[in-house]
Structure prediction request, 760 residues.
Amino acid sequence: MATLLSPPRHYLNDGYGIKSWLLTRDHKRIALLYLASVTVFFFIGGAMAVLIRLELATPVGDLVSDETYNKLFTMHGVAMIFFFLIPAIPSVLGNFLIPIMIGAKDLAFPRLNLLSWYIYVVGGLFSLYAMIAGGVDTGWTFYTPFSTVSSTTQVVPTALGIFVVGFSGILTGLNFIVTIHRMRAPGMTWFRLPLFVWSSYATSLINVLGTPVVAITILLVAAERVLHFGFFDPSVGGDPVLFQHLFWFYSHPAVYIMILPAMGVISELVAAGCRKPVFGYTFVAFASLAIAVLGFLVWGHHMFVAGESVYSAMIFSVLSFLVAIPSAVKVFNWTATMYKGSVSWETPMLYAYGFIGLFTIGGLTGLFLAAIAVDVHVTDTYFIVAHFHYIMVGGTIMGYLGGLHYWWPKISGRLYHEGLAKIAAWIIFIGFNLTFFPQFVVGYLGMPRRYHAYPPEFQVLNVLSSAGASILGVGYLLPMAYLIWSLRYGRIAGSNPWGAVGLEWTTTSPPPTENFAQTPVVTWDAYEYPAPVETHVA
Amino acid sequence: MLPDAVEHHHPALAHQFDSLEQQKEAATLGMWIFLVTEVLFFGGLFLTYTTYRHLYPDAFAAASHELIVWAGTINTAVLITSSLTMALAVHAAQTGNRRLLVLFLIVTMILGTVFLGIKAFEYYSEWEERHVPGLNYAFDPRYYRHAQIFFSLYFLMTGLHALHMIIGLGIMAVMLRWSIRGTITPEYFTPIEISGLYWHFVDIVWIFLFPLLYLIGRHAHV
Prediction:
């Protein structure tokens, strides 16, 4: 049986000093390196968001100039999407958990894993340089020919940053796929894998297949900008819509790179929070793969107003509707899991409830946008902004924070302050909805995105949104504070504080460097909770 | 550290694996997945090429006509031969023939260098002919702009391919060193095998580049 005392050796005290971290090949330490770096970018992107919401508190553009505003929303998007949302869950939670969940000692390629982090840092430095050297104003989408001909800002360093960081994602995805195929412990069959592993696998497939395309696209943009090749410049025979095709071929699937890992986290949280196996395990597992596959077939719905032929628009519209099916399968199955479960109200579950509600709203408004007629009406309005923030902030960040809380005792060996954590979860939920729900309304009423000034009749809704953003900001700072506090003052967690099943809870907290004292032999299915006959003692 | 290291512990066996076989399977799968990412990477360029060739067939034919076909043909032969010697090197590693392994690796590297030399000669001639967009470019005014797209793609595609060749030569240099030092044995020749996969892949990219850039449309208009 697990001992109550911390083991004498674990991954955190196995070597001290800066070198033992910067040259580590331990997937758990690399996960913590990523945790630190994605947090930096989260707060950089967040600072831009604060300035954006401050500017939009009044209808006139008075706080920053229009040019500065363009740079703010561009760099907010670049920092958040490429340096936080895409890497966050795979690189932090995936890195830490996948080898432990499948009973392996490490990822298949530990050195490559460390290299991925260094590539992330180099890409991040390029982007930081671009921000400091004057910023970039093209929007995170880099639409041509504006980005290649007209813009006078730091397009090339930003583009190079994204090019470089893409390889970090590609190599991490490659590492995960090989690890899940080849490193599973004896008895850990595919259909015994935790659903987080399934969704990480699906995410990795997208990363490996999609990211190279955006890499070459960005290279084309940079080459064109420096040497004026004219690939995407209509004045010399280039086709700007070709850029959009190439860009969205990756960047739409990238949305699923962001949301799929969060869905995996939610499956784990719901099972542990309800003391029940996830309802329809195989359906949830295959829904992840279905989302990954369908995700590659819908990019054209970003170009309904970009001169796409009406027939391709119709086909892309129908295919986009299809994505709703596997997404709904997941939501229904989580709900069915809760039904008659011993439902917990601890912090991770609060985030899971938040995720399910907010993702549903984000997903359903996605159906509005897949309908061509509605999309033409709301294209480039705040309705779009609200929709994708419901998916990315309401979905991905909720999943990330829920997962971070759920596995924090495993990562750190300590318990955080449950009361504070619950308050933070509520503040985030309320702040989030106050920020982004008014944007659905104001967007439907016709307020365009990406302007620093707007007609005065939109002010009430914008003030609500800005007020919500300040609440949300407080909500995000709180976990930062109490999680760090718990590292020193938190109670010792023990190996399984939630009473959850799963290989990660069978090893000590924090786990030893080699994860398990002995390679586990798996003879049970995922989420084998005892049948809910007795009432759970509260 | 671990007590389960009692089994046969080969010096090349990394700590995270249980057996050399598992390690080899992982490395091979990893290389195949990497090559898939490479297909997608070059795929973006092939798509761009296809789009503009479809839009501007005349300009593409005229520009294609300016390339040095005999140099491209020789290079195709050189690369295919290097793939043969690479395959023979893998076989020599498998059968433990260190002398042949070293020989075939050296021949592969020489052929790769010959390819790059001929490519450099082509680039030099194209510079002389003023066919380098952005730096030194002039062309028949009828096709000036659209031929510029062709040449831009030509330099990007063959340039990226050449970069892959240079990286391949670096990998081969390491393989050569390991083969001479005796790290490569019939029990452990995975590095040679997956380096071979990479080399063949770079070769295959050229097999697509050559007809697309040098041959298609040559007899159509000009």
